[in-house]
Amino acid sequence: SDIMVNGPESVYVERNGRVVETNVRFKDSAHVRLIIDRIVSNIGRRIDDSSPIVDARLNDGSRVCAVIPPLSLIGPVLSIRRFGKKLLTTDDLLRNETLTAGMLDFLSACVEARLNIVISGGSGSGKTTLLNTLTRFIPEEERIVTIEDTAELQIQQPHVVRCETRPMNIEGAGAITQRDLVINALRMRPDRILIGEVRGAEALDMLQAMNTGHDGSMTTVHANSGRDAFSRIETMVMMASQFIPDYVIRQMAASAIQIVVHCARLIDGSRKVIEISEVGNVERDFIDTAPIFELERTGLNKGGKVMGQFHATGYKPACLERLRAYGIHLPDSLFREAVAIKDN
């Protein structure tokens, strides 16, 4: 899914979750630069000494990032993230053991009951894939506004408004940020706002939107754990305003977000949902979270596959009352679920 060119003599690709080196080589740095120029010119962008970084979307939906000297010390560097033509279905995620049927039932119920959800994880951990999957459970009559730096979401509902940021022009003006788009989206009568990845000052406007009637909104964030996601959000809110006290930001986040889903790419290259937690109250200097489902890893099998089991913690979330108000009744057995990863 990823192609990484580290100068003319080093080309890597990701296959089945593992990064491997290929035998592909370029003639020299000028050859790599020529390829980069062709790619970016086809999408109306430019890369040169005055603008040595390009981050954009190709016509087929792939995401491309290129860096040239003097910022890159090893010559021109190119990274392309390709997305499959076939959207992964819920059956695909279950077959890949990304999560269990019980976890999926719970998350789908949370989407239908319009709970605000944050998906956290590292780069390439499957956050966007999971977000795409969860959008399938949004009712078709609802109006969805998506906001992204580089458009990656593939929403299947008919009533969707897709927005993408715009970089500054040659004169250094004309940039449209995610924060600009979030503020504008609030004027477009959205039922739900989906932000591909919150990474800056737009976090403040996202929390305000979630707290002011735009229930059922979802986003992703880079973080090492579900609890760490709140520290990241707190830092990003401070990018918007340094005058909001820490405890006020935490209260806003705890009030706005109900569910945190943490994803990870494991040592064997597989992508799994590590934890699903309900957001609780603010406890001193942190926001309390209560795990509902967890992945307990026990080691590797002979083939190097990560072994372990998904299991419910036994905690019954307070949001069950909200689900019942929407006519959704989950069985008690779901919160006793335990499913071992298959040894194959």
Walk me through the structure.
The protein has about 350 residues and is an alpha/beta fold. It folds into two domains: about 1-80, 2-Layer Sandwich (Beta-Lactamase), CATH 3.30.450; about 90-340, Rossmann fold, CATH 3.40.50.300. The protein is about 25% helix and about 30% strand. It is built from nine helices and 16 strands. The strands form two sheets. Strands 9-8-10-11-7-12-13-14-15-16 form a ten-stranded mixed β-sheet, sandwiched between helices. Strands 3-2-1-6-5-4 form a six-stranded antiparallel β-sheet, covered by helices on one side. A hairpin with a 4-residue loop joins strand 1 (about 1-5) and strand 2 (about 10-15). Helix 5 packs parallel to helix 6 and helix 7 (about 225-240) packs across helix 8. It is globular and about 65 Å long. The model has no long low-confidence stretch (mean pLDDT about 90).
Question: Which terms would index this structure?
Answer:
single chain, 344 residues, alpha/beta, Beta-Lactamase, ten-stranded mixed β-sheet, six-stranded antiparallel β-sheet, 9 helices, 16 strands, globular
